[in-house]
Design goal:
Largest sheet: 6 strands, mixed
Radius of gyration: 19 Å
Number of domains: 1
Strand content: 15-25%
CATH topology: Lambda Exonuclease, Chain A
CATH class: Alpha Beta
Number of strands: 8
Length: 251
């Protein structure tokens, strides 16, 4: 089966991910991220309200850029402050007092690649924080999220497979992840952000939650099945798109 996807793992992406020597062999291969897979499979696209796959077609096939409301920027700034003490000027003293209670584990933004070998496609992710690798084991892997109390429960939905992709990627490298957790930072201002307030409307609340994340071998296999199914479906649509419109998407 010939697979064609709109995104290719380039030398620039490899360098951005830290120039990991063992990942250099993947340069030139088609790739997806979990966020792409999730948005494609959504019943309701975040930006348009259309079926997720239609929103995916607009963004990744046609190269349409959707407005960034500020969520991603806020999340990145929170993570940068927690792990690297960067972007301190983006937060008030009250917000920093809350963020300062979070103790990072130690290894930040590790590029992880899960190679779907039979399709020769890769899934790329960046692990927010994990403990150092000792005897081919990671004692704890952590994913930082900014959420309101009402929205944080969706992190444990069955359709969420981001952490499983990390675990599968490490597994391919012979590394076992023993435990994983979410560190959820309370976020306010979501309604105002969506109404046009942007990043400036969002702010850190007073609470931080640590929630363990569990998985098993069956769950990891299900993750791989979903990836394969999604890759094949996107590829078939993309080949039709290329036939009639040519390669319009940007790598």
């Amino acid at each position: 089966m010939t697979i064609k996807l709109p995104k290719i793992y380039t030398k620039e992406l490899w360098e951005k991910g830290g120039s990991v020597e063992e990942h250099k062999k993947f340069i030139g291969k088609y790739y997806l991220s979990w966020s792409q897979i999730e948005s494609y499979r959504d019943k309701l696209g975040f930006n348009t309200g259309l079926l997720g796959k239609f929103e995916y077609f607009l963004k990744y096939f046609s190269g349409y850029s959707f407005h960034e409301f500020g969520w991603a920027t806020f999340g990145s700034e929170v993570e940068n402050y927690i792990t690297l003490r960067q972007d301190a000027d983006k937060f008030t003293e009250k917000e920093k007092k809350v963020l300062d209670t979070i103790k990072p584990i130690g290894v930040f933004q590790t590029e992880i690649i899960f190679h779907v070998k039979d399709l020769d496609v890769i899934v790329i992710g960046y692990v927010d924080d994990h403990s150092p690798i000792v005897d081919s084991k990671i004692a704890l892997l952590r994913d930082y999220k900014t959420k309101s109390e009402s929205s944080k429960k969706d992190l444990h939905d069955d359709k969420k497979h981001q952490i499983e992709i990390y675990i599968n990627g490490f597994k391919q490298k012979g590394i076992e992840v023993e435990k994983a957790e979410y560190c959820i930072i309370e976020r306010f201002g979501g309604k105002e952000c969506m109404a046009g307030g942007g990043r400036e409307a969002l702010y850190v609340g007073e609470r931080v939650w640590y929630e363990p994340y569990s998985w098993d071998a069956g769950r990891l296999k299900e993750t791989e099945r979903i990836i394969k199914e999604t890759v094949i479906e996107i590829s078939e649509y993309y080949k039709v798109f290329l036939k009639y419109f040519g390669d319009k998407a940007n790598n």
